[in-house]
Amino acid sequence: MNQLKELQKSSADGTKTIQVRVNGQIVEREVHIRMLLVDFLREELGLTGTHVGCSVEGRCGACTILLNGENVKSCLTLAVQADGANILTVEGLGTPDNLHPIQEGFWEKHGLQCGFCTPGMMMSAYNLLKVNPHPSSDEIREAIVGNLCRCTGYEHIIEAVQYAAERLSSMSKEEREKLLTY
Amino acid sequence: MYPAPISDYFAPSTLEECLDLLYHYGSQAKIIAGGQSLLPLLKLRMVDTPIIIDINRIIELQEFGEKFLEPGKRILRIGALTRHKTLASHPLVLSKYPIISDAAKYIGDVQIRNRGTIGGSLVHADPAADLPVPILVLDSTLRVISKDGERDFSAEDFFLGLMMTVVEENEILAYVDIPSPQKGTGAAYSKHSVVFGDFSVISVGARVTLLEDICQSSRIYVGGVNPRPQRAVNTEEFLQGKTITSEILQKAADVMAEEIEVESDMRASNTYRKILLKHYGFNVLSKAIQRAKEDQF
């Protein structure tokens, strides 16, 4: 049990040092064990694109990010659980001068009104397009069922994802992979 | 919303290490896997725990696949860390155990299914959860482990009541063994929820074994209405030995609605639940029988 006591000593003050790769950059921080991943991203790293909506049950999906390649709700994960993980947030998609096809889709098809749910929507779209290059409208609906939008009727969001799918499939395999394999 | 303060966090990489931790801290510790149920409870202060044990790194709990326990006795072993996503889409589940994917694909949403685990869902034992019903219907065996040894439970004995199972503070659910279906068997699950992906208002799971259209045996459970899924014994007896027709199934659904005790709550009145039960009871039995005939299990 010596090893366990050692472990306990290292974190018994309620904090733990974690290292994560976020949007390609490796960061290390000491965090409270009870800190949620979403708060870590927003408050510790200043990545405020990931939103806090429902805040309790993880129903709204505004905090959706990619954790080790899969979309998850960062308000239902502890920051310490992400130790060693690879994270992609909406900030990692594209830049204002060089939008990611998914962002372009939301821009072109006006897939938003207030924009609060948009970052989460885009991360779920990313997860979908990674495995399904030509999703039907029903498949898109199923993919964003965990992302609530209170403004639109979802129609424009679906068109935005379809636009992104078309843009991506018109690209070469290498380009596509570069844009979708985080 | 912040969870209650947590003073210590462990992420063991082997099962043995995890059992050591449970042996020492069991009464003060909570196990976290996907955390999709635990984190809301921590935020709402319905659970207050000084220690968190994160089991995500334990490879022994990630087992998934068919194996022979002894000659002729094939099972599907599902490690406690198997995600809902795997259960919803794995080719093996879809081809031989479709009742499990019936249930898993309706859990929450994509994000929840990417993270949530079967072990978490079963041990949490929410009466409206989706996975307990098929686990019961398929006569599964659940292996619970502690530093002192291993205990096996039939699914029927595993669930005690509202969010209560046989798992003790120093124990962990390691895996679920599901017997491979015999010829002529089909099983199906369906549920009614207010919003897609929500907890069930009622859910029904059924397994039927046919020999030339005659019901040899069946197993039926209804979830979402009681502290734990209730077995529809009278319906099973009613079907026994009968030649299956649409009319018989309709009558079976009536028997089911008659025998299951349902209560009213904020989601639905008991009258409405009875109506739902007849509808879903019929549909699920039909689907199970269709699968039995096509030998789709």
UniProtKB/TrEMBL annotation, chain A:
Keywords for the protein's UniProt record, in alphabetical order: 2Fe-2S, Iron, Iron-sulfur, Metal-binding, Oxidoreductase
Family matches, as SUPFAM superfamilies: 2Fe-2S ferredoxin-like (SSF54292), CO dehydrogenase ISP C-domain like (SSF47741)
Domain 2Fe-2S ferredoxin-type: 16-93
Listed GO MF terms: 2 iron, 2 sulfur cluster binding; metal ion binding; oxidoreductase activity
UniProt superkingdom: Bacteria
Matching InterPro entries: 2Fe-2S-bd, 2Fe-2S-bd_dom_sf, 2Fe-2S_ferredoxin-like_sf, 2Fe-2S_ferredoxin-type, Beta-grasp_dom_sf, Diverse_Oxidoreductases
UniProt KW Transport keyword: no
Pathway(s) of this molecule: Alkaloid degradation; nicotine degradation
PANTHER family named among the record's database cross-references: OXIDOREDUCTASE WITH IRON-SULFUR SUBUNIT
Record-given protein name: Carbon monoxide dehydrogenase
Species the sequence originates in: Collibacillus ludicampi
Automatic annotation (TrEMBL), chain B:
Pfam families cross-referenced by the UniProt entry: CO_deh_flav_C, FAD_binding_5
Keywords of the record: FAD, Flavoprotein, Oxidoreductase
SUPFAM superfamilies named in the record: CO dehydrogenase flavoprotein C-terminal domain-like (SSF55447), FAD-binding/transporter-associated domain-like (SSF56176)
Superkingdom of source: Bacteria
Limits of the FAD-binding PCMH-type domain: 2-183
GO molecular function (one): FAD binding
PANTHER family associated with the record: XANTHINE DEHYDROGENASE SUBUNIT C-RELATED
Designated name of the protein: Carbon monoxide dehydrogenase
Organism of derivation: Collibacillus ludicampi
Lineage: Bacteria, Bacillati, Bacillota, Bacilli, Bacillales
